[in-house]
Amino acid sequence: MCRGLGCTVQSRAFGIKTTLRVQEHISKLIKKDKSKSDKAAEMQVTGPGPYHDTILESMPSELRVPRNPPPMREDTMDHTWNTTDLEALDVGPTKHRVPDLISDKIALWAVKSARKPTDIFFRNKYIHRSVMLEVVAAVPGMVGGLIRHIKSLQGMRHDGGWIGHLLHEAENERMHLMTWMEVSKPVMWERALIATVQTGFFAVFSLLYMVSPRTAHRVVGYLEEEAVTSYTHFIGEIDAGRIENVKAPEIAVAYWNLDPESTLRDVVLAVRADEALH
User: C-alpha angle 20/21/25, rounded to 5°?
Assistant: First the structure.
């Protein structure tokens, strides 16, 4: 325990050190705030700089993947697509797979039955209908790819390329959903309804795929037929002026390599062309 003059000197020295540390800390905070203010002012003048994902940049080059998955058509990035190009694609809006087996008829009945409540609920709200459609359509590819992956591991044999194809389809459907989310901006209760429907469909389709993969694939085929029909009606509503033909969202322009001046109608044409390939 210190006493007298020595204790006083130590106390003053401690107080001076503490004061200096506080001043140093305050000085750093001021410099940091000034730096932020300078950057904000620069942003207002020059605009935001390029986005840098530090985690992605730290990964080995062979592990880096683009933000958007590859599109369905291999020739999508060969040139910029305009309305004339998209309309020239053969989507077969009247094509139909006639059911042969009982399982095929069950699959067709299930899809037609599921469409009825959708028609009643959404009616001519084709943008919101598209969100619901893509939420469901993005499930089968991922489920099929997962189950085939597990079976390939268990059987210790190659899957014949199905896994990659199914995951590609799932990613494509997910990009459809991301596009429609940009257009529709669903509110909270709509998001809740979408999540509920997707969860239920995921459970039912997973069970179906484990029991009968053939029937599950036939369900997807008939679902895609309905998707082509819905998007054809969607285009008709735009042409009739009942749905505003707004500018295409940036995510769609980048994904399908569309003309920068593309509109909502062009996006629907591109999505319909994808559905015809599934």
Answer: 115
Whether the Cβ atoms of residue 205 and residue 145 lie closer than 8 Å to each other: no
What's the pLDDT tens digit per position in 195-213? 888 899 999 999 999 999 9
Residue 150: left if φ>0, alpha if ψ -120 to 50, beta else—which one? alpha
Rounded CA gap, 232 and 186, in Å?
A: 22
Q: What are residue 258's DSSP bridge partners? A: 81
CB 243 within 8 A of CB 234: yes
Q: 3-class DSSP state for residue 276?
A: helix
The number of beta carbons lying within 10 Å of the beta carbon of residue 7 is 11
Question: pLDDT band for position 46 (50/70/90)?
Answer: very low
Distance CA 166, CA 146 (A): 9
* 76 secondary structure, DSSP code: G
Rounded to an integer, what distance in angstroms lies between the CA atom of residue 212 and that of residue 150?
A: 16
> Which string of DSSP letters, residue by residue, matches 165-218?
HHHHHHHHHHHHHHHHHHHH---HHHHHHHHHHHHHHHHHHHHHHHH-HHHHHH
First CA to last CA across the chain, in angstroms? 84
53: left (phi over 0), alpha (psi -120 to 50) or beta: beta
Average pLDDT, the chain: 80
- Picking from 261, 219, 260, 266, the residue whose alpha carbon sits closest to that of residue 239 is 266
The residue written with tokens 């592990």 in the block is 63
Write down how long the chain is: 278
Class of residue 48 by CB neighbours under 10 A (exposed 0-12, middle 13-18, buried 19+): exposed
